[in-house]
Amino acid sequence: MRPIFHPDKADITLGAVLYALGDPVCLAIVQRLAIEDELSCAAIEIPVAKSTLSHHFKILREAGVLHCRKQGTQHMNSLRRADLDDRFPGVLDTILNAADRATRADQSVL
Amino acid sequence: MRPIFHPDKADITLGAVLYALGDPVCLAIVQRLAIEDELSCAAIEIPVAKSTLSHHFKILREAGVLHCRKQGTQHMNSLRRADLDDRFPGVLDTILNAADRATRADQSVL
DNA sequence: TTTCATTGTTCGATTTTTTTGAACTTTCGC
DNA sequence: GCGAAAGTTCAAAAAAATCGAACAATGAAA
Fold this sequence. Notes:
By secondary structure, chain A is α+β, with helices and mostly antiparallel strands. Helix content of chain A is 51%, strand content 13%. The radius of gyration of chain A is 13 Å and the shape is globular.
């Protein structure tokens, strides 16, 4: 069981973050995490295979978008809000804002 | 020669915009357009095949990120800043801002 | 008006990426 | 220990990106 990798704040690249947010599954995960604070992988109801979801969480984690800690058999995920805001001010917030409005307007990103 | 399709402002979706911006080639195009105002496809020096570039411009255009008008044999492209800002306030600006800072820090998105 | 060069699109093939189910690991509760 | 729950890994299948070649459209040159 090797430790879970997280990039240093300074190593977070805009390209990786945008690539992640550009994926509808990842964006949906981020949207949920924006509300729920901390979630296990299983807690996110998205119609994709377990292995696919696992892959997307890895993308987000390695991009520096979320932090993951093990708790028993679960992986608890949370947004790295402070790090992202420090590195790319406003980016996450404006996107979440827009996503939220789009969702309310019944135009889900999925 | 069929007319060039552009989505109405109201039909621009965040998903499509983020998908486009999440692609390094598209992001590079948008970055250039943020500075240059209007550019032909050929004016953008990016190391991809002509047909690939054409494809990326189409992605951006159909996502509502840029507008394209024909001028002779050329296709002149420009950002749909007002429409994007109206629909998703701050999103384009903060991303361009972050991209610009990343570029200056020699961490090109390409 | 007949070339000819320029600009960009379209098409089919190739390569790359994404998605998936099955098998596996880890951890906890019984 | 045994079995269930939560994720990961792996190899195969499906989907998407990339490319070169052929094509269309326009303007310029002859």
